[in-house]
Amino acid sequence: MQWRDPSTWLVPFCFSDTFKFAFRVAISLTLAFLIPMAMGWSQPSTAATTVMLIATTGSRRESLAKGTLRVLGTIAGGIIGLCLVGAFAQDRMFYMLSVSIAITIVFYLRSAYQKDPTLFMLTGVMIMMMYNGGDAEGAFLYGVERTFMTIFGVVVYTLVGVFLFPPRVEQNLHKLAGELVASQQALFEHISQPVSDQVQIPVGEDSPEALLPVAPPDAGEGSQAEDEQATVTVADLSKAVYAAQQALEGRYQTLSAECSEISAYKKEWDGTIALFSQITNLLMFAAKDHSRAGGHPAEFIQDYAGIRDELIALFEALPDAWHSREAFPPEAIPQLAVDKQKLEGESHLYRGEAISSCYLFGALRERLVQLQSCISSINSLTGKVGFSLPLLAEKPAFIWWDAENAKTAIKVFVIYWATGLFWIYANPPGGYNFVIFGTIFVSILSFMPMHPAALFVLFTLGFVVSVPAYVFLLPELTLGAELGAFIFAYTFVAFYALKGPVTIFFLLGLFTMGIDNSMVYHFGITLTIVSLFYLVVGVVVVAHFFPFSSKAEHLVMVMRERFFRHVSAIVWLVQQPELNGWQRLSMRWHVTVAKTALAKLTLWSSKVDGDLFPGATPSELGEYASQCDLVFHHLLTLQQAESKLEVSPLVHTARQQHRDKVIPFLVEYLAGDPKVSHLVPADVQHDYQELEARLDQFFTEQEWQKNTNSDIAYFYIFLNLKKNLFESLLACYRANEKVAWDVLTHKRF
């Protein structure tokens, strides 16, 4: 049936996403050059530069709403820039001071903004472009022309991106949701199967566990290595669930506000994502390697095998719900029946674990039924869900107080003044354009994972291609179509072969040719432009090390310390019996900064040169970052459960009488606290086992009748979440000990 979908066979719709993106950008940049030239407008390169900047720094999905905001940002920047020119037309130093302050603020907002970064980037660019090199007389017309051509470039790129190869947003979300369902099902099957079957889980091609990345065994290890790698653990499955959940939520948050396919059913989509998150949390509440009381739900839940099969069937039915054209309300769910006669003769611990297991199984079944109903209502024309949908926590538009955002703003201020003074006293090629491009590229490439030498190589490669074309090809072109074909081919190759902001430096070769209606073929002009951009590349390389270092090994050490410093603060806040308003605000801030630091730690861990730093290779650092990710997600699950745990009298009393000192001690060691310089894993495990024994004894001494089933369930959820966090911290400790951290502090030369 694939022939019904042209995207699977019709050229060029069947090509890769990279091909489609490069094709869209090449069409946009070609039109941005040719249309102004055909209309006789000046400065067509301004529109083309705008397309280049948006394509290299923005997302691959375009929308009319996003394009409108870019136009408004461009107009705002133009107005601010013209006002500054008018206010300080006779005093260059005061003008530069006002501009430096304005762009520092704007580029800080650009770094902190979590949606489309090109919005504030265009504002900052327009503020600097209004100056016209100090010519106050023609500044207004010059600024209006630049603003108009920038807006034209935004409009061209937006329209091409919206109507040519538009991304299939819903299908992408369906795929991510399917991966999440498969990983959730794998975890549920693992933690719910009878004890006799938990020795080993075969990983088949069609099993959900096959989603987990498993490295191939070394040759010659034989079947023993295959058997070991065919066994998965709760930690492995938890990582897969957390990764899939994060991928779905992150993708949805970036699309929900700008995509019409989603906004029409935003309430249902929000409920779907929130229910997925609740199911993940329920699975983490129940995730454990062994029973605390030695029992298993199969022993006390009646028809346990049938209920387990029912839950697995609900997981398997979720992908089909996306294709339903009718919304069906959730069915009534009978309560789980337990073997009361067996429970009466068991200990408090056994009965408590039985109650918590029944609560989790019942809640999981309820959420799966609700999720199935919610998904089916998305594509339904008239159907609505028959229950109150959970609210989805909105992602903040800005991340304030991030250190790298502030450092980028300081870099912009310093580089603007450094290039400005160099322009005033040395008069470099390009004049004030040297200040503009140097400041823009430093802001875009600040704290980007790149090698400085690669920038020179890319620009030189673009120069090697553009100069022969300037000498031998451009003079022979007589038709606009021929010029368009050349621009298209050059741009397509750049965006197909390269990725991200570094594409700019190869694409700069196109702008060294000075393409315009009235071409003046003079090699001295080309060398002037090339010299300008070589100076700009040199500025970017200097900014890579000054005033703040962007070396991978340095940033790994910084992010490691920052992550565990904030994790330590979260652990301290979680242990408080009740949080006041300031502490709740502090909790949100620590969680946000820790999440951002973790993402940067993961990124920069893969960029460390293992040849220069033996003992701290990307693979070892990557494993460490992966364990940190698991620690953070377990801690986040515990923090999100606090709203229910803090109202449980059992949990409240247990925290007061048996304060946990083991987990804070372990976190402080990983944070590099000088007071905790030595750690023995066996001693830490023994201390935690003693803490668990005291908590078990505490529960045994409680009067059974005074506690509700919900309180008992929350108490066991609390114990299980802490256990998962402790085990993930131990795994992180083991990964930490494998890395030679002292090596990363050594100088390269």
Automatic annotation (TrEMBL):
Transmembrane spans: 21-42, 69-88, 94-111, 146-165, 408-425, 431-448, 455-473, 485-511, 523-546
GO molecular function: transmembrane transporter activity
Keyword match Ribosomal protein: no
Major place of residence: membrane
Classification via Pfam families: FUSC (PF04632)
Domain of life: Bacteria
This protein's UniProt keywords: Cell membrane, Membrane, Transmembrane, Transmembrane helix, Transport
Keyword Ribonucleoprotein found: no
Protein name: Membrane protein
Membrane topology field: Multi-pass membrane protein
Cell location: Cell membrane
Lineage: Bacteria, Pseudomonadati, Pseudomonadota, Gammaproteobacteria, Vibrionales
GO cellular component, one term: plasma membrane
InterPro entries assigned: PHBA_efflux_AaeB/fusaric-R
